[in-house]
Amino acid sequence: MPASxxxxxxxFAHVVAILTGTTWIWAGWRFTWLTPVLWASASxxxxxLATPWVARERPPSRVTVWWLRDAFFLAGLLFLxxxxxxxxxxxxxxxxxxxxxxxxxxxxxxxxxxxAIDRAEAAQxxxxxxxxxxLVVAVRCPLLSGRAAKRLFLYIAYxxxxxxxxxxxxxxxxxxxxxxxxxVNDHFFASFAYQNHAAAYFVLGGALAAGLMYHELFxxxxxxxxxxxxxxxxxxxxxxTGANLALSRAGVILAWALGCFMATYGLVQGWRRLxxxxxxxxxxxxxxxxxxxxxxxxxxxxxxxxxxxxxRTPIHHVFSMLDKVRLDLGDRPLLVTTAWSVWKDHSLFxxxxxxxxxxxxxxxxxxxxxxxxxxxRANVHCDPLQFLVEFGAVGFGLMAAALAVLxxxxxxxxxxxxxxxxxxxxxxxxxxxxxxxxxxxxxxxILFTWVVVLAALPKVSGRSQTSRPCSKNVExxxxxxS
Length: 482
Fold this sequence. Notes:
Blueprint: H1 6-24, H2 35-49, H3 51-54, H4 60-63, H5 71-88, E1 94-97, E2 102-105, H6 119-140, H7 146-173, E3 177-178, E4 182-183, H8 195-218, H9 226-245, H10 249-273, H11 276-308, H12 332-345, H13 355-359, H14 369-372, H15 383-407, H16 419-435, H17 444-460, H18 472-481
Antiparallel strand pairs: 1-2, 3-4
Helix pairs in contact: 1-2, 1-6, 1-7, 1-17, 2-6, 5-6, 5-15, 6-17, 7-8, 7-9, 7-17, 8-9, 8-10, 8-16, 8-17, 9-10, 9-11, 10-11, 10-16, 11-18, 12-15, 16-17
């Protein structure tokens, strides 16, 4: 191993270890199991800070305290400092206020400073966002090349496909225990105890695998391994099937929308590049893959999916054909309006991590208190609004600034022919859409994967290799398929 590759391989290994541990071990949802991830993140942060000395043979301009010139590093560090302040100033207690004739929470030890209600819950925000920050800094490190970033994409796609296969095996076995060991009362899929989390993750994984598949299929600079293209196609089917069998209504809708978009994209791009005979073969292969996807979903879970879309109570839509389809948002509108009221009273610094669940009963009438105790009311089911409530305008602004640094390179003109940009970007966007009606970013496995894909996308798609009119890879694959 050349000495110059050692730092890159160490960084890559750390990122892979963090993503693997988080994704496969309860999707990072059990906070007591995040300790190894935190230690790996701390180790990675030390490695990154030491890169100017570890990579002395590189040109000094590339590695000398590069992180001090990285806007994301600074914005993210300020955001982590804000979370640390909330944790340090946490510890508010519920007391009865006779003058107001109601229960309230005491002021923090230092009024006027960022604070949280419960110290342990505030620490969980650091457990989420510190690894996410370190992962992004690692991906943006000058020592991590575009080729390594693409290998990272391949690893995430392969891991998502393997996890989806594991979920299908669990689902087919009929077990009610995670890993066949830990009983779970609600529906779960793979390593995700919450079905909507599973759906969001596999939609993202499917989009990433599709981008890699089309990149290999349509590239013209060199032949691609046929086995890799077929494997990526299998992973796409596995991920979209997993998103359906997670039994999330939004997940089913987004998975089929993504599947239709991918099929249309492949046909349009192939039609522009291929001779007539290859076009027919491409259409036949696309239809065959789509049929495999359909029958995989129908064979495993058509009745279960249908029950998810069956209304619990009579519903009357504007279009009567939708009366038998469950598309309501449940109690999410009430949670959203309540969260907005909470934020208006704590607009500057927010209520701290998980503070919404403590204050919910203070903002609804007494007749709703039994509803407050129902599982699932700790979250607004709208991630942007919940983060605004928890971190206030200041913390949310710091988070938005760090995010803007990652998004800004993607707003430059990109070619629609560059599948390695378009498909992952669609997957990232679908998770954002999901977050408007649910909480994917409150799952560490999704949060970490999402930020890594977002941060790596400029490196991976920096130069399109799909701009030529025809690809021998497509003709070679289709000739064997026919």
